[in-house]
Design brief:
transport; mainly alpha; 142 residues; AA/rel_permease1; Amino acid transporter
């Protein structure tokens, strides 16, 4: 039976058929990160404050800014590939005050993890209150 399996692997090239393309991977990550909820829930603020133009131009500016940040991080990772990433690079590229800036970057990164972990529950609670207000006209959030 092992010979049959090896012979079948040799005939098919020994590789599995690839059925996930780049678009499927991007769509999966988009759904996995719940970014569709964040996009839908934050449109209300952009529409109220700047109108449809703020959504279009804000998306363009945010995309350009994110690309610039990713480019600078890629440049630093090509110079000093390490597991520590930002706090290690901050300590490496600021030789005079490397310990202080490395410590501050570590704290900022930890605070960013905490904030990103709490953003989805806060967004979902706003959606629940909005649905309660919409479906029950007598409900007044306090």
């Amino acid at each position: 039976e092992d010979k049959k399996i090896k012979s079948a692997q040799n005939q098919s090239g020994g590789a599995l058929e690839r059925y996930i393309n780049s678009l499927s991977a991007v769509n999966f990550s988009f759904i996995l990160q719940s970014s569709w909820i964040a996009s839908g829930a934050t449109f209300q603020f952009a529409l109220a404050n700047g109108g449809p133009a703020s959504i279009v131009y804000g998306g363009i500016f945010a995309g350009v800014g994110t690309t610039l940040v990713a480019t600078s991080l890629a440049e630093m990772s090509s110079m000093d590939p390490t597991v520590g990433a930002q706090y290690r690079w901050t300590a490496s590229f600021a030789p005079k005050y490397n310990r202080f800036f490395g410590l501050m970057q570590g704290w900022i990164t930890s605070f960013a993890w905490i904030c990103s972990g709490t953003s989805n529950p806060a967004l979902i609670s706003n959606i629940i209150v909005s649905l309660a207000t919409f479906n029950n006209t007598e409900y007044v959030p306090k």
